[in-house]
Design brief:
324 residues, alpha/beta, Rossmann fold, 2 domains, seven-stranded mixed beta sheet, five-stranded mixed beta sheet, 21% strand
Length: 324
């Protein structure tokens, strides 16, 4: 189906991140990477070999990683702290809040192998809380790119950002979903496909599944809009509200708990504005999460072309024609 849509399979966003960072750091020697036994898993081994004086290894000590990232950034460096998202945003939450955000230093945290990327390693390694935890902290931009293009641009944005940034990457190879000529802007969502019956608002590795679901619905005469909401915070309110006005059904899709993430942010924005399209937040429910490969977990929880299309059809039933 992806081939039918003309989508080309690219690299893992994590690989794109590492290569982009190395290119930037070769030109700008103030850029440094800080790792917590994550040089290999963060695809930074080539970076370390090429720029050994611009990488710091702290060992499995994520709280130290955040403190060092913040300290370097406060002293004129542009530091990227790279660690598995599940550990980075749980073990180090106080340091993120105080050392980075409260102190307002322009450090960058990179949560790798996010969501359920670690698959069969299970719930200890799933990162399904990071959006919720970080959204509750003031003064941080949260970005989950949908493809290699959004990744490159997000890293370039983070390298010059004046305030804290969190970048979230999974492990899977990504389809190139962004149309040519698209301009990336942090805080500004990208509409990948237009439609006025259903809208899928997604980010990260779920976006391609929303696009496939939209194509499936089109075969049945249902026009589905797909929006890559790469920036979870600050949320692009203008695009979210326009979607709520235009479409009868709004479905959010994320590799995160249904509590505290993109879905709740969108729902709050719609309700506050008095917009009431049929709504569903698709993600990981509040239960003991199943163990398996990422693809298996996605299918189990409805993050698939077939299940997303079925969810859209279900919500369309009983809705009057036209926008809400």
């Amino acid at each position: 189906m992806a081939g039918k849509l003309g989508l080309k399979l690219g690299r893992a966003n994590l690989e794109e991140f590492a290569d982009t960072l190395q290119v930037l750091a070769t030109v700008d020697r103030s850029i440094v990477a800080v790792t917590s036994d994550s040089r290999g898993s963060g695809k930074l081994a080539p970076f370390g070999k090429a720029l050994p004086r611009q990488i710091i290894e702290v060992g499995i000590a994520e709280q130290n990683l955040v403190g060092i990232t913040a300290g370097l950034s406060a002293c004129g460096k542009k530091a990227f702290g790279v660690s598995p998202s599940c550990f980075l945003t749980a073990r180090s939450l106080e340091q993120i809040k105080n050392d980075l955000c409260y102190s307002d230093v322009p450090g960058v945290l990179v949560g790798i192998s996010a969501g359920v990327s670690y698959g069969a390693l299970g719930s200890t390694h799933h990162s399904l809380h990071d959006f919720a935890a970080l959204r509750a902290i003031s003064n941080i931009t949260i970005i989950a790119p949908a493809d290699n293009f959004e990744t490159r641009e997000a890293v370039r944005f983070a390298a010059i950002a004046a305030h804290p940034v969190f970048l979230r990457f999974g492990k899977a190879a990504m389809y190139d979903v962004t149309p040519a000529g698209t301009r990336f802007e942090a805080g500004r969502a990208v509409t990948l496909r237009d439609g006025h019956d259903v809208a899928f608002l997604a980010n990260g590795e779920t976006v391609v599944h929303a696009l496939l679901a939209a194509a499936n619905l089109a075969d049945a005469g249902i026009a589905a809009r797909v929006v890559s909401v790469h920036t979870v915070k600050p949320l692009d309110l203008s695009t979210v509200l326009a979607t709520g006005r235009d479409c009868r059904v709004v479905i959010t899709v994320e590799e995160h708990m249904v509590h505290g993430g993109l879905g709740e942010a969108v729902a709050a924005a719609l309700l506050t504005a008095g917009l009431k399209p049929a709504f569903r937040s698709v993600g990981i429910p509040d239960e003991d999460t199943v163990t398996g490969a990422q693809a298996d977990i996605f299918r189990h929880y409805g993050i698939s072309m077939e299940r997303l299309a079925a969810t859209a059809r279900e919500l369309l039933k009983g809705r009057t024609s036209g926008s809400c």
